[in-house]
Amino acid sequence: MTEFWLISAPGEKTCQQTWDKMMAATTRTNNLSTNHKFNIPDLKVGTLDVLVGLSDELAKLDSFVESVVKKVAQYMADVLEDSRDKVQENLLANGVDLVTYITRFQWDMAKYPIKQSLKNISEIISKQLTQIDNDLKTRASAYNNLKGNLQNLERKNAGSLLTRSLADIVKKEDFVLDSEYLITLLVVVPKTAYADWQKTYETLAEMVVPRSSNLLFQDNDSGLFSVTLFRKAIDDFKHKARENKFIVRDFQYNEEEMKADKEEMTRLCTDKKKQFVTIKLLFKWCPAHYNLCLCVMCSSRYGLPVNFQAMLLQPNKKTMKKLREVLNDLYKHLDSSAAAIIDSAMDIPGLNLSQQEYYPYVYYKIDCNLLEFKV
């Protein structure tokens, strides 16, 4: 499972006792979950009034962080396109997968100094998220333009012989070049008309060079033939060829233009790969907001001074209901009104939680599956 429950309960005589009690109830006798301590530094919590006021702002920040992280993950999937099965292995935070990152989470003291107030730290996170969100919009727009240009070039290189680019098909030696009188044309001939072409091309106009036609390329439907003639016969040749359902391509061999087309394709492919590298760097920032929100929740619920143990539980899928019952029994003494609040759909002032999320203990659900599709 990729679902985690981040919970917290007030310390017993020591926080270690709180941890031991929870471990005994959930793992040592019934194997309901895999548990990890969740380390929260000694943050500058301020007064209870400040915490209650800040909790609503943090709830909004929490939703914003989740939406941005999911958008970044989805964008990475879009960039990977046909390699979407590799998305999960590239969704890394600080160089490790999300499960490892969450279970071994460490507060970044450099980015979020704990001597600053919780409000200041939340503002730092909000500004960073806004920057990432704006950066993502810019890069997504650039990527869509890049993708569109590349698709147009790919269509030119993969269409029928009537429309596709010929840069990767023809060679310099296929043409008579730099001649004042002669020119080489390229003609698309249906496969069913190859024999007719060989019989008639020399007589479609005057001044066609005998035995000058060669098959240069063919696809499932047609072949591309070259033919050399005098320049003054071009219009007559094109007219007669069209009457016989032979289509003369409007093409002039230009080495510099063909080289530029190939370089443009290479550049677009390179830029596309750079988009993937960039998105990995964007995703490196992983939500550090959980422990900040948790600290406010615990402090406003349990009061000051701060004294609680944060714990990360990974429920076993088949025993989630039983785990919830065990936790409720273990912590129901903390808030006897919790069950009644859940049943009556009562709002919790300052906590901004739905009734389904309210328990005697502080609870956050963390889902590491950030993508809407199944890879």
TrEMBL record:
Designated name of the protein: V-type proton ATPase subunit C
A GO molecular function held by the record: proton-transporting ATPase activity, rotational mechanism
Family: Belongs to the V-ATPase C subunit family.
Transport among keywords: yes
Species of the source: Mastacembelus armatus (zig-zag eel)
Function: Subunit of the V1 complex of vacuolar(H+)-ATPase (V-ATPase), a multisubunit enzyme composed of a peripheral complex (V1) that hydrolyzes ATP and a membrane integral complex (V0) that translocates protons. V-ATPase is responsible for acidifying and maintaining the pH of intracellular compartments and in some cell types, is targeted to the plasma membrane, where it is responsible for acidifying the extracellular environment. Subunit C is necessary for the assembly of the catalytic sector of the enzyme and is likely to have a specific function in its catalytic activity.
Cellular-component GO terms for this entry: lysosomal membrane; vacuolar proton-transporting V-type ATPase, V1 domain
Keyword terms, alphabetized: Acetylation, Hydrogen ion transport, Ion transport, Transport
Subunit details: V-ATPase is a heteromultimeric enzyme made up of two complexes: the ATP-hydrolytic V1 complex and the proton translocation V0 complex. The V1 complex consists of three catalytic AB heterodimers that form a heterohexamer, three peripheral stalks each consisting of EG heterodimers, one central rotor including subunits D and F, and the regulatory subunits C and H. The proton translocation complex V0 consists of the proton transport subunit a, a ring of proteolipid subunits c9c'', rotary subunit d, subunits e and f, and two accessory subunits.
